[in-house]
Each structure stands twice: as C-alpha cells, then as structure tokens.
Amino acid sequence: xxxxxxxxxxxxxxxxxxxxxxxxxxxxxxxxxxxxxxxxxxxxxxxxxxxxxxxxxxxxxxxxxxxxxxxxxxxxxxxxxxxxxxxxxxxxxxxxxxxxxxxxxxxxxxxxxxxxxxxxxxxxxxxxxxxxxxxxxxxxxxxxxxxxxxxxxxxxxxxxxxxxxxxxxxxxxxxxxxxxxxxxxxxxxxxxxxxxxxxxxxxxxxxxxxxxxxxxxxxxxxxxxxxxxxxxxxxxxxxxxxxxxxxxxxxxxxxxxxxxxxxxxxxxxxxxxxxxxxxxxxxxxxxxxxxxxxxxxxxxxxxxxxxxxxxxxxxxxxxxxxxxxxxxxxxxxxxxxxxxx
Length: 341
Known about the structure:
By secondary structure, the chain is mainly beta. It has 2 domains: about 1-40; about 60-340, Outer membrane phospholipase (ompla), Chain C, CATH 2.40.230. The chain is built from 3 helices and 18 strands. It has helices spanning about 1-30, 35-40, 210-215; strands at about 60-75, 85-100, 105-120, 125-140, 145-155, 160, 170, 180-190, 195-210, 225, 235, 240-255, 260-270, 280-290, 295-305, 310-315, 320, 330-340. The protein has a 12-stranded antiparallel β-barrel with strand order 1-2-3-4-5-8-9-12-13-14-15-18. The chain has a two-stranded antiparallel sheet with strand order 6-7. Strands 10-11 form a two-stranded antiparallel ribbon. The longest helix is centred in the first third of the chain and has 29 residues, at about 1-30. The protein is globular and about 90 Å long. The relative contact order is 0.09. The model has no long low-confidence stretch (mean pLDDT about 85).
C-alpha cells in the first residue's frame, strides 16, 4: 500500500512540474513584443507532396541498321567447271531525326563496302559508298507537311577504284571525286507513308578531286592541266568544280506484299550555267524480302548518269581515251543478316 502511494505521488509531481513549465513559457512569451513572438515561434514544417515520376520523352528519333551479306561458291572435281569465290557486302544506315512542333532536322549516314575474292585473282572491290545527308526544315503550323528547308549532301568513297584487271592506275579514290550539294528549297514530308519530296531552285554543287593526277587529267569535269608540246605540266589542273543549279530528290518506302518491301531513292540535278537541261541522275531501287527479323534478301539496282564523268576505253594502241558520258548501272542480289539497334 505504501508503494502504491509513492508511485501515485511521483506521477502527480511530474505532471505538476510539466504544467508549471508550460505556464512559465506562456508568461515569458506574453512579455515579448509581437515581432519577437513571430521570430520565437517556429513555423510548422511544410507538407511535401510526392512528385509523380514522369518519363523523359526524347525529341530525337534514332535508327541504327547494320547488315552483312555473304555469298560463297566452292567446287571440287566439278565436271562443268567453275571458280571458287567468296564475297561480302557491309551495309550501315544510321539516322537521327529531331522533331519539335514546327521544326524538323533529319540527319543520315549511309555506308556500303563490298569485296570479292576469286581463285587466282586479287581481292577486288564490288561496292564503295559513303554518304552524309542533313536537312533542316521549318513549317508555319503543325497541320502542314510542307517545310522551308536547307539541305546538305556529301558523297565520296573510302578506297581506290580500278578498271580491273588493271590495278596500277586508279580511276578514283577517296575524295576523288567527292560531291557536295548545299541549297535551300521546299520539302514535303509524310512520315506515316515514308514519303519525302525535296525541290530546290538554288543548289550549289561542288565536285572535289584531291588526287592531282586525276585532276591533271580533267577527271570528273574539273579543268585539266595545261601541258607544253612535250607533255610536261605547265599549270596544274583544278581540284574543284563549282556549279549552281536545280535539285530534285524523292524518297519512298512501302510494303507492296507481305514481307516484301520496296525502297526508292531518286536525285535529279541540272546546272543553270553549263548546258542547262542536261540532267545528272542517281536512281536507286531496292526490293527487300524479309525472311524473319534478322535475315533479309535484297535485289537492288542503281542507275547513274553524270555528264561530267567520262568513260575511258582502250584504243587500237592500247591507250585509254575518253569515250564521253555513258549511263552507269549496277545490280546486286544478296542475302544476309540485318540488325537494328
């Protein structure tokens, strides 16, 4: 009984002390000025709301496509005869497209390189193409598919080209030639149909030939070297040819049948000052046969015509002479692996 009384007394004294402390705090607070009271009283902690996680939406559309086509033929005691051969073709297509309301910036890198090796023959090149495209466009409203655009295009190759079987004298090499197009115009772009149309009435085309031997020979339309009567070079040939003209390009891609697609790319250019109406043509047409997600068969055609590119053929004495401009055509058929990242 005595212990219970001691516990009750202890609890009562603790509550009395707490109440006295609160009364002293109130009395002390009443003695402060209103300004001192505001600084003395701590403001309550603000209630923070949890922010919902919003995923970051990039304005860049990315395409990374890599393909490798390989074909091989081997013969062992084959009655009909034949030559062992192996060939490969590497394809790279990288795109970066920026879309933001009225702005569109399309960038693309295209690279192709193919080689072939046959028995008792040196390694030969079958394809060599390096291209960079960049188009920046602006439209007045988001409902229109027409853009006012500026376009840049650069095309060259990465290794020497030969008129086989002659591998001593190159007929082309890196940056010889290199073609650049820079102009302004209007562009029609329809993403859902994979359709692009570009018209430029003001485009500067530059042909670059850095290999001096090719430049001295006047290859690809540049001004050739000036020679004396003995054939010695008096003045080196020009390394560039600049033209101003009209450019039209068109790209289209569609699936014509199940797992069969068509890809079309056309470029037409004519110079205002030099033989206006004589059109330089580059037309690629590819049929893609999709076997599965990774295997693709392709039948491709590339037709070109450039009035500044003269075809050389040997005459009766075995000397190469210019035979004028000719239509150039390349056809490819292959099956390989394609990967998109």
